[in-house]
Write a structure and sequence with these properties.
alpha+beta; 2 helices
């Protein structure tokens, strides 16, 4: 999806709001429609990794998910790799969209879908105690997530 300046005809990415040449507001290109509004990205403790990959591939997947109304976040995963994260509630729908996206647009991609065992280290897969601050096998440090107050 792209936008077009009504004054000069310059094309812009969908997130641009103003023409950088003539400062006119941008409109959607003829035949383009806005994607459904995605829900806000969930809190970090509610995110699960969907897929690892290269920045270009993950960004394209994030745009595909956004077009389907699923918010995502691209962030570091383990040792300098990038992953795309979605909310737990969207995981199954996001997996289906990601599988279709990869088959259609990235048939030779080396990234693999992730199925994460919550009792194992996300970097190396070694069993890890729930209260561990870091993985004993690879040293990955786990963020401290505050417990929800139920009082």
């Amino acid at each position: 999806m792209f936008k077009v300046c009504a004054r000069c005809g310059q094309e812009y990415q969908s997130w641009a709001t103003e023409c950088s040449d003539c400062h006119a507001p941008l409109d959607l290109a003829p035949g383009e429609t806005l994607a459904p509004a995605a829900r806000p990205v969930p809190a970090p403790e509610e995110l699960v990794v969907l897929r690892l990959g290269e920045p270009r591939e993950l960004r394209a997947l994030a745009e595909t998910l956004q077009a389907q109304g699923i918010s995502s976040r691209i962030d570091a995963y383990a040792k300098a790799r990038l992953g795309i994260y979605v909310g737990r509630a969207d995981l199954e729908a996001a997996r289906a969209i990601a599988e279709e996206f990869v088959a259609r647009d990235l048939p030779d991609a080396d990234a693999a879908p992730i199925s994460h065992d919550p009792t194992a280290c996300p970097a190396c897969g070694e069993p890890t105690p729930e209260d561990a601050a870091a993985c004993g096998a690879c040293g990955l440090e786990f963020p401290e997530v505050p417990a929800n107050d139920t009082a």
